[in-house]
Specification:
10% strand; alpha/beta; three-stranded antiparallel sheet
């Protein structure tokens, strides 16, 4: 433990969480100014009335004040605001498929386990490629079939141009997606990739195969458009040039699949460089444009013959690959089971490491449902003439109609569970509010709701995937056997049409609003911020990974401060920011000498680092990596948590229980001494600081926030300063007791 001297100062570097934040809220000041960064990743400080950087509030330690500088790293500009960022909402299925890759269990079982893991990763990439082709096919259903082949048939001068007019908009969409997928954040400070695998987030690095995947997805998208235009994947609609286009499109799709699988192997994919990528993309573009000229358009406003077989074959490939993936994931999860068998049940991965399967299924079903919703919306808005959609859309609407009904029923049951009082209140609640029973009563429902979400979120995801999967199988069987809808199911397609249309309109409306008022794009923040954390691996058409920019720049800023003698740096992160701060701290303790490591601390607030990330991503943020990070920080990791917080929870302790009026539990190093009550009224068990919510107060001389705060405003709690001081390695003399704070 370093002994603080007269020149000791603390730099508190804050990282915010999801939904973005303002610089002023991050540093808890009326005005904030930039002191570093490139405008996208911003380092800000509080400012005085002349907009000059001002020092932060001092910390009390060892009976004297210790100077503190408060800084904040603002990364909300990478996920909030603007058309390009809002448009990612339309590509949520792609992002979920990419997230599913990072949810795979760790490689175990020697060579068989490594081979199985390679096969699973290859399957996810094939699913990603098929998802792109499904989306492009559904766009082509609207542009080439509904509008060009059917609706434009009523305009005599445009009949000869229906093929080009239908294909060109789809080609433009593919070009836009390709450009979006090539966007990346420019990192101001490049750091070497981590060489260890024992710390959280050590495998979160850029994939060198991403440029190759960009080209392959664009190539496959162009080829599937050409295939639909000339008759579909089963046979060409006409002989001659159309038949040649059909063969070329099939060959390009097959080549794209093969290269996608080969890029999954060892190596950096340099053999698939710029020249072959450009050649393949140009060739597929020429095939698509040629198909526009030779596409055999039907006489009269009739359905395009290539539409149904194209949609059905792509959907069948997706379904079969997902089934094979789910089956092969079982032995992979069983092989990895030894890594977490000794952990407490609440610390083990969700579904025993099998969670990637339901997430991938939901991604595929969302992709099919959203594309069908766009087609149905266009069909309903052009009611002046009867327009035909693929037969399968009718069963998709039935599936989503049934899903909407079941979701309503499950929501009703969940509401009843929350409203019905429980006999056993949370063990920490009574201790935190033992002097304020009215506050305990107000917080009980919030504790119950938060605990239900943390304990059962993964079960809800699995249940949704199971219900939708069963519905998809039934719908597909009914479609193949041409089974008519029974009488009792007749309302379901109407509900499905309404739901899918509403989903399509709502997402498009959000994108439109984001172009007019960029601040409204924050409403996309939760999903965007969570999905954008992961680098492009299984699908390239996803938002650029902000972690690849935030983490090295935060690390560089910390090293810059540590260059000044006597400076101690405490990284603080709220919500998703706690993951970024923990990964940055892991990179620092891995690369710095011991003398500098002892000047680093970590504070997490409202963090999902125990209940969510190690359980959902057991290969990337395993529980063992958190143990290792805690060991290297040697007591300088403090976690602020509220039982009312549905997104955050305990980080360093578990198996908590009350015995003889004392809170006990287990931590990273085993059973812990009984929790102590700090001067602010918090219960400190190991590294976890349990905060009373509502706060005790008002407190003289401090900003106070009334009511149940749940996931908000951890900065207003007086325990924040104590946690920062402890994380800085400062010895604290106990300040005023809880009762004195209220005087």
């Amino acid at each position: 433990m370093l002994i603080p001297g007269p020149d000791t100062r603390v730099v508190e570097l804050r990282v915010h969480g999801v939904m973005g934040t303002t610089p002023e809220a991050l540093v808890d000041a009326v005005v904030a100014v930039d002191v570093a960064g490139d405008g996208v990743g911003r380092v800000v400080r509080p400012a005085d009335r002349l907009r000059r950087p001002a020092p932060g509030p001092v910390l009390q330690a060892g009976g004297r004040p210790v100077p503190r500088t408060v800084e904040g790293y603002v990364w909300s500009g990478m996920t909030s605001g603007g058309l390009a960022k809002a448009a990612w909402a339309l590509l949520l299925p792609f992002a979920l498929a990419n997230v599913a890759h990072w949810m795979l269990p760790p490689v175990s079982g020697g060579r068989p386990g490594a081979a199985l893991n390679w096969l699973l990763r290859a399957m996810i990439r094939i699913v990603g490629l098929a998802l792109t082709m499904l989306l492009i096919s559904q766009v082509a259903v609207v542009s080439l079939d509904l509008l060009a082949a059917q609706w434009l048939d009523q305009f005599e001068p445009l009949r000869p141009w229906r093929g080009p007019l239908g294909v060109l908009p789809v080609v433009v969409v593919i070009g836009v997606l390709h450009q979006l997928s090539s966007v990346d954040w420019r990192v101001a400070v490049h750091a070497a990739a981590p060489h260890g695998h024992l710390l959280p987030g050590s495998r979160v690095i850029a994939d060198p195969d991403a440029p190759g995947l960009h080209a392959l997805h664009a190539t496959a998208g162009l080829a599937i458009v050409a295939l639909m235009a000339v008759g579909g994947p089963l046979h060409p609609a006409a002989p001659g040039v159309a038949s040649g286009v059909w063969l070329a499109a099939l060959a390009i799709i097959g080549l794209s699949v093969v290269i996608t699988v080969l890029l999954n192997g060892p190596g950096d994919g340099r053999w698939f460089g710029k020249l072959p990528r450009r050649a393949l993309t140009v060739l597929s573009g020429l095939v698509a444009l040629t198909s526009a000229a030779v596409a055999p358009m039907p006489d009269g406003p009739h359905h395009l013959p290539g539409t149904d077989p194209t949609i059905e074959v792509v959907a069948a490939v997706l379904a079969l690959t997902c089934i094979a993936f789910a089956v092969l994931l079982i032995p992979s999860a069983l092989l990895a089971r030894s890594r977490w068998a000794a952990l407490a049940p609440k610390l083990r991965p969700w579904a025993g490491g099998w969670m990637a399967a339901p997430v991938l299924v939901i991604a595929c079903l969302l992709g099919g449902g959203f594309g069908a919703g766009i087609g149905i919306t266009v069909q309903q808005s052009l009611r002046t003439m009867p327009l035909q959609l693929p037969d399968g859309y009718r069963y998709v609407t039935m599936l989503w109609g049934a899903g909407a009904v079941l979701a309503a029923l499950v929501g009703l049951v969940a509401a009843l569970v929350v409203l019905v009082p429980r006999q056993r209140p949370p063990v920490e609640l009574g201790l935190l509010h033992e002097d304020c029973p009215q506050d305990a009563k107000r917080a009980t429902k919030a504790w119950r709701r938060a605990r239900l979400q943390r304990n059962h979120l993964h079960r809800m995801i699995m249940g949704a995937a199971a219900v939708l999967s069963i519905g998809a199988v039934l719908s597909f069987t009914m479609q193949v056997r041409r089974v008519p809808l029974p009488d009792w199911a007749q309302p379901l397609p109407v509900i499905g049409v309404t739901g899918l249309g509403a989903l399509a309109i709502a997402l498009l409306r959000v994108v439109y609003l984001a172009t007019q008022r960029p601040d409204t794009a924050r409403h996309l923040g939760v999903l965007a911020d969570l999905a954008c954390f992961w680098p492009r691996e299984a699908h390239p058409v996803v938002p650029p990974c902000y972690a690849l920019k935030v983490v090295p720049e935060v690390v560089a800023r910390v090293i810059e401060h540590l260059a000044q003698p006597g400076t101690r740096v405490v990284l603080t992160g709220h919500s998703q920011g706690s993951l970024l701060a923990a990964v940055a701290a892991a990179r620092l303790v891995e690369s710095l000498p011991k003398a500098d490591r002892e000047r680093i601390g970590l504070v997490t607030a409202g963090s999902p680092l125990q209940w969510a990330y190690p359980r959902a991503f057991p290969a990337i943020v395993p529980h063992s990596s958190l143990v290792e990070l805690s060991s290297k920080l040697d007591g300088r990791w403090r976690a602020l948590c509220r039982g009312t917080d549905p997104l955050g929870g305990a980080v360093t302790t578990w198996n908590r229980q009350v015995f003889h009026g004392q809170l006990l539990g287990v931590g990273f190093d085993g059973p812990l001494p009984a929790a102590e009550r700090s001067g602010t009224g918090a219960l400190v068990l190991g590294g976890d600081h349990w905060l009373p919510d509502p706060q005790h107060g008002p407190i003289s001389g401090r900003r106070w926030h009334p009511g149940v705060l749940q996931h908000r405003d951890y900065l207003s709690d007086p325990e924040w300063d104590r946690a920062v001081a402890l994380a800085a390695g400062l010895d604290l003399t106990e300040g005023p007791r809880f009762g004195e704070f209220m005087r």
